[in-house]
Every structure is written in structure tokens, then in C-alpha cells.
Write a structure and sequence with these properties.
three-stranded antiparallel sheet; single chain
Length: about 350
């Protein structure tokens, strides 16, 4: 198995061109913008990061089934963080595998023209390269991109939350060859790169890191309640109906208990990273609410192949991700439309 991954990694030593990427997507370093987050630890870290360094405003959340957005905000003015939106007029950045077969590029693939996607940047597809897919979180990609333009400070206390996010700490040891290849691609080994102190920190032995991660887990668990982890904001039920959202007239507020939990987690992240949480630029109430339909291939007993993937893309899904070599989770604009 090891030789196979090494074979796949042959001739995969290209490096990201941050300057070109910023030229192609100048909005990623522009200040004072509005954004929508995924409601998990990756989205929350991204929001905290861009609000601190670029003064972005957090206007809502999207989980594939529900979108909540500040009532006075136009979705077209927002950048979606930690998800790939398949609409050319919507800006987004994510890290999931979205292309099935590079040799059969969908005719409407230009819908991703305003999306920053690391697997697409390297022409990786699920058919040939699923084992080589981007193994880190969106926050790491953001740190690399924005850190190539402005000085980013990563204190040692930030390492645990930045290794916790999206299970990065598990991936490091489970897929070391692929992780190392991606870190070289992101230039994380260069002295000036803000990713270097995260992944090449000399202070942490494996044992020391385990103890530090255990302490972080305990602090996270102090915020958690039954069926709701402290590092996530639940905005929908499995059925797709809203969760933790209270209707007030024609708009929705996040209930106070959920607000309290997620603000405690943001404060924990803020204390550890040094990225100040400014409550004034985070929207927690008076949301417009949109409902969508989220499905997956396995649940629908659909076999993933060229034909079924082409059929899916022809339906213009709003977002999707290959969650395994045989399954795709996807969202369709029904009953509501994004714009």
C-alpha cells in the first residue's frame, strides 16, 4: 500500500504560486467584506481569522440544508468560507474533493470560476487521485494565502486548535506521505510561511502534543451538551428542519443557549490564537432562512461513476463533496433558491 501512494506521488512536487492565486482571486485578501461560514470548527476558525486580519463581517452560516443570513445582507455580496459554491457569481473557498474525472470535465465547470479549491488547483480528481486529496482544513489554506500577503502571527498556543480542526491531528499520522507533499506544495517549510510554526514546531514531542491536545479536548467538552459538541453550531436537524433557530416574525434568531455555547468556543479559540473575537461583527439574530435539499449517493443507492456524476452536475447542485471514493453528499436548491 505504501509503495502505491509513493507511486501516485511521483511528479507531484509542484508548489503553489500565491502571487498568481491572489491575482486570479483578489477578493481573498480584500478588507471589509461579508462572509458566510460553515458552522463547524473549520468555519469558525476561518471567520475568526478573517475578521481579525481583514475586518470581515460574519453574516451567517450554511450547513448544506439550511442557510441563515443577516436580513439586510445580499448573498451575492458574501464570500462563503469552508465550502465550494457551484455558482460563478458567488465567491467561495473550500477544501473538499469535487471533481470525479478530470478527463470528463463537466460542460458547466465554469460555475466554479470564483471558487478557490486546492484539489482543483492541482488537477486532482476522485477517480485517480482520491488518496492524494487535500488532507488539511480550509483555515490552513487561508493562513497560507493571506499570510503570503500580510504578516500573520501564530503563537504556540494556537497549535492545538489548528491541529484539532477537521481532525488534522489524526490525518498527520494516518497519511504522512500525502500530508508532507501538501505541506511542501503550500510552502509550509519556508521560514517566512505562517504554516511553518504549526507543522514544524520544535517544542512539541508526540507526548507533549498529546497532553496539550487532551487539555484542548477537555475545554471543548466543557462547552458541549448532549448531542451538541462545543465546537459546532447546529442549525439543522437530520430531517432538514431548523435547529436552535427561533422564528421572530418573518426572521429567525439563534437561541440564547446555542449563542452562549458557540461564543464560549469562539472565546476559547480567540484566547489560544490571539485572533480577537469582536462580537459586533458577528450576526446572531434577525436572519433570513433558506431551506435546501441535501442527499447523498449511498442513501439513494446510486453508484458513483462517470454517468451518475454527470447526471448530478447537470442538476446544478449548490454544493457537494466526495466524502469517500464511492459517495458524494450534495445540496440542491429546493425548496428555496440561493439568489
Amino acid at each position: 500500500m505504501s509503495s502505491r501512494i509513493q507511486e501516485l506521488l511521483k511528479d507531484k512536487e509542484e508548489k503553489i504560486d500565491y502571487k498568481k492565486l491572489i491575482r486570479d482571486y483578489p477578493w481573498i485578501v480584500k478588507k471589509n467584506q461579508d462572509c458566510i461560514l460553515s458552522p463547524d470548527s473549520d468555519g469558525l476558525l476561518c471567520g475568526l481569522f478573517v475578521s481579525y486580519y481583514l475586518n470581515w463581517n460574519i453574516k451567517g452560516f450554511y450547513d448544506g440544508k439550511i442557510l441563515v443570513i443577516d436580513k439586510d445582507t445580499n448573498v451575492k455580496d458574501c464570500i462563503f468560507l469552508d465550502m465550494e459554491v457551484f455558482r460563478k457569481n458567488i465567491r467561495s473557498i473550500g477544501h473538499h474533493m469535487v471533481l470525479f474525472n478530470l478527463n470528463r470535465l463537466p460542460e458547466n465547470w465554469e460555475e466554479f470560476q470564483n471558487c478557490i479549491q486546492p484539489n482543483n488547483l492541482r488537477n486532482y480528481d476522485g477517480y485517480k487521485h482520491f488518496r492524494l486529496k487535500y488532507p488539511l482544513a480550509t483555515i490552513h489554506l487561508l493562513i497560507g494565502i493571506i499570510g503570503s500577503k500580510i504578516k500573520i502571527n501564530i503563537p504556540e498556543s494556537a497549535i492545538c486548535p489548528l491541529l484539532f480542526v477537521d481532525g488534522t491531528f489524526n490525518v498527520l499520522f494516518k497519511y504522512p506521505e500525502n500530508v508532507l507533499n501538501w505541506l511542501r506544495y503550500l510552502l509550509a517549510n519556508e521560514k517566512s510561511n505562517p504554516l511553518k510554526p504549526i507543522f514544524e514546531n520544535e517544542k512539541y514531542s508526540v507526548f507533549t502534543l498529546m497532553k496539550a491536545m487532551d487539555d484542548f479536548f477537555r475545554k471543548r467538552d466543557e462547552i458541549s451538551i448532549f448531542k451538541e459538541r462545543g465546537d459546532r453550531l447546529r442549525i439543522s436537524e437530520t430531517s432538514g428542519s431548523p435547529a436552535n433557530l427561533i422564528k421572530q416574525g418573518q426572521y429567525y434568531d439563534l437561541n440564547l443557549d446555542a449563542q452562549d455555547r458557540i461564543k464560549k468556543f469562539l472565546k476559547l479559540l480567540s484566547d489560544l490564537t490571539g485572533w480577537t473575537y469582536n462580537e459586533k461583527i458577528w450576526s446572531w439574530e434577525e436572519y433570513k432562512l433558506l431551506k435546501f435539499t441535501k442527499k447523498d449517493f449511498s442513501g439513494s443507492k446510486i453508484r458513483l461513476n462517470n454517468a451518475t456524476y454527470t447526471d448530478l452536475i447537470s442538476k446544478k447542485p449548490l454544493t457537494w463533496a466526495m466524502i469517500s471514493g464511492q459517495n458524494i453528499e450534495y445540496t440542491l436548491e429546493y425548496p428555496d433558491k440561493l439568489v
